[in-house]
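Q&A log
Question type: sequence-to-structure
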Amino acid sequence: MCAQEAQVKAQSLAPYVGSPVPVVERMLELANLRPGETVYDLGCGDGRILIVAAQKHRVKAVGVELSERLAKSTSESLKKLGLSDLASVIHGDLMEVNLADADVVTLYLLRDSNDLLRPKLEKSLHPGARIISHDYEIRGWRPTAVEHLEASKRDHKIYVYTVPMSFAKK
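Response status: OK
Response body:
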């Protein structure tokens, strides 16, 4: 691990900014979720992606959150909503979490953070897995779709990526 990675790893990879609910709903629609799939939201904040994934799409949702306060309050919210059987939160560093069972990964991180995360995604995800990124592209990858959406008085971009066979583990 280089010094820059170690420095960023010790810090949050993005400030906490919640995605507007219409953006969350569209991100999950673009993910084309299927029964039995698992969604990982890296930097899940207040859990809104987890909640919509579990309530509306009835898929397993796992959030990863660095902030102990947010991880705890999100876990409590999931319990109050009766979603603990489908959704959970891991309090930890998203760079350390095993993503092997992820079918969909959602992100609202900074562009440089996506650059740091890219090798982990390439190594961890299976062909056909989808990555849905709010506002920030993953440089070096070609999105299968880019959608603009007006929400909360501004334009949002949603980037959709599909893991190709060339990333298959050898």
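Response note: The helical segments are 3-9, 21-30, 48-57, 68-80, 111-124.
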